[in-house]
Amino acid sequence: MARTPAQLGIVVLDQAGGPLLRIAGEIDRETAPRLADALRQPWASRTAPPTVRVDLAAVAFCDSSGLNVLLDADRQARERGSTLQLLNVPDRMRRLLAVTGTDQVLTLVGGAPPGGPGRPAPPTVEGG
């Protein structure tokens, strides 16, 4: 039986403090290279942004390939004096981070998204 190819959506929003990447779908061996490419971009220029935020609210699945991409991006950020922040990490992914101990390495901001794993958080108004 043929497996359906994993889907991964990546939207990059330029914001004052640095880019926000909204990730949706599955992060696995097949899609991790696309995420890695997107996460390399903020640090490709001479001037690294102070913070790169990654909204994971709509991630339905993440395996060790995705975890490795996030750890590599965090390393790149630290080497350039930046911070990688993971926002709205779904419960299932939080468990993966806790089991592997990487929740102590990566910067998680906020709780799991409302509505459960794989469902986007409701829009928020920034800048009050």
**How are the strands of the biggest sheet laid out side by side?**
1-2-3-4-5
Task: Please state the structural category.
Answer: alpha/beta
CA(first)-CA(last) distance: 51 Å
Report the biggest beta sheet as strand number plus sense, adding barrel if it closes.
5 strands, mixed
**Could you name the ranges where pLDDT drops below 50 across 5 or more consecutive residues?**
116-128
SSE layout and pairing:
Elements lengths: L7 E6 L6 E8 L4 H9 L10 E12 L1 H16 L3 E5 L3 H10 L6 E3 L19
Parallel strand pairs: 2-3, 3-4, 4-5
Antiparallel strand pairs: 1-2
Helix pairs in contact: 1-2
Architecture overview:
The protein has helices spanning 32-40, 64-79, 91-100, and strands at residues 8-13, 20-27, 51-62, 83-87, 107-109. It is an alpha/beta fold. It has a 5-stranded mixed sheet with strand order 1-2-3-4-5. Helix 1 (32-40) runs parallel beside helix 2 (64-79). It starts with 7 loop residues before the first strand and ends in a 19-residue tail after the last strand.
